[in-house]
Amino acid sequence: MGKYENLREKTVFDFCDDQRILKFIAGKEHTNINEYLKDTDEETRVSDLRLLAFLTVNDELDAAVYPLFPYIIEWTVEAFKLRNELLATQ
């Protein structure tokens, strides 16, 4: 699995540097990893990794995170809109 090992110890900041995505996930204008770690618990961080996988259409990341957060997620309309915007700019 390589870069997707020890996912409980990782955050969206380990896999993404796109400020628009990080702002959407973290919900803050000028977020950084220290604020994020302070304000979130492990379950939220793992859930956020699933959201990152969805937004970036990263099936490999989603498959790696799924065993840690094996829930069906109903993504918001806003998540679908951002995903579509990101796909349109690729």
Can you tell me about this structure?
By secondary structure, this protein is an all-alpha fold. It has one domain. It is built from five helices and no strands. The protein has helices spanning 19-26, 33-39, 42-55, 59-65, 77-88. Helix 3 runs antiparallel to helix 4.
What is the topological layout?
Blueprint (H helix, E strand, L loop, with lengths): L18 H8 L6 H7 L2 H14 L3 H7 L11 H12 L2
Fraction of residues in helices? 40-55%
Count every helix, treating DSSP H or I runs of 4 or more residues as helices.
5
Roughly how many Å is the radius of gyration?
A: 12 Å
What structural category arises from helix and sheet content? mainly alpha
Overall number of strands: 0
The unreliable regions are none
- The N- to C-terminal Cα distance equals 25 Å
The 3D shape can be described as globular
Largest sheet: none
Q: Name the helix and strand elements from N-terminus to C-terminus, one letter apiece.
A: HHHHH
Mean pLDDT: 92
Strand content: under 5%
> What is the number of independent domains?
1
